[in-house]
Give the backbone structure.
Amino acid sequence: MHDHLGGCGGGIALGRRRLLGIGGAALVASAVPFRIARAAGGTDALLLNCMDYRLTEATTTYMVQHGMAEKYDQVVMAGAALAAKNDKFPAWGTTFWDHVQVALDLHHIHKVVIMDHRDCGAYKVILGKDFAKDPKDEFEVHAKHMRAVRDDVKKKYPQLEVELLLMALDGKVETIS
């Protein structure tokens, strides 16, 4: 299949996948039949992670290695936790909360996993500082923002667990308490 614009759904074909523009958001829809049985009640968590292309494979690998293959929904936003709560792009927070509610309504999730990563460009853009130059400072700023989102999730949805993770560019993951 060749990449093209248009066609069914008005998207861009990407091999066996189709990039769909829906309400200003882009979604990747597989041409392979959707697993309806899995979608109806088989989802345990909602993963919020950054859009950084350097970590897409490592993120999926981490989730699979931790028993989450085909058991999580995913929201991908620049900065992950920072996207969910910042003053520069407040609409991003609205998008995050809308996704949490839809994941609850459709898939009855019981956990939100927030996975930030080191050397995050969104933190540089939104906060105006390159935190990667000081790993301890970088850890603390991510932890602060992730804990704030965790506290907001617990306040709004006390029944949900929240897991906070910080991934390095080599794929190693630290848990934030």
In short: Residues 1-39 have pLDDT under 50 and may be disordered. Residues 87 and 156 are 20 Å apart (CA to CA). Residues 36-176 form a domain with the Beta-carbonic Anhydrase; Chain A fold (CATH 3.40.1050.10). Residues 135-156 form the longest helix (22 residues).
